[in-house]
Amino acid sequence: MTTFIMTGRYSAEAIKRISAERTTKGTKIIQQHGGKLVAGYAVLGKNDLLIIVEFPGVSEVIKASIALNKALGITFATVPALGLEDFDKLVGAKS
């Protein structure tokens, strides 16, 4: 599984529908696309949400991101993340 960080912004309409049920629905959408919600945070600034997820690959996280936008009105920007231990191994390896 690959770790991804997704930052989300609510649309004006989506803000009107914020609820705990929406969080449950979002988690189910992630699971339906082969993913796992690791952690989620409401944040201040240019983004409203930051979630850490795991997916088998890029195509699954793209499909989930589109499904989340359609169902919840939240637009996500997504980047892969590599744990520091794995990063250190990668950059410390001699070629």
What is the gyration radius calculated from CA atoms? 15 Å
- Can you say what the CATH homologous superfamily is? ACT domain
Strand pairing plus helix content: what structural class? alpha+beta
Strand residues, percent: 25-35%
Report how far apart the termini are. 25 Å
Brief characterization of the structure:
The chain is α+β, with helices and mostly antiparallel strands and 95 residues long. It is built from 4 helices and 4 strands; from the N terminus they run E-H-H-E-E-H-E-H. It is elongated and about 55 Å long.
What this model shows, in words?
- The structure is a single chain.
- The chain has one domain: Alpha-Beta Plaits (2-Layer Sandwich).
- 43% of the residues lie in helices and 33% in strands.
- The two termini are 25 Å apart.
- It is of the alpha+beta class and 95 residues long.
- The radius of gyration is 15 Å and the shape is elongated.
- The protein has a four-stranded antiparallel sheet.
- The chain has four helices and four strands; from the N terminus they run E-H-H-E-E-H-E-H.
- Helix 2 (20-32) runs antiparallel to helix 3.
- The longest helix has 15 residues, at 58-72.
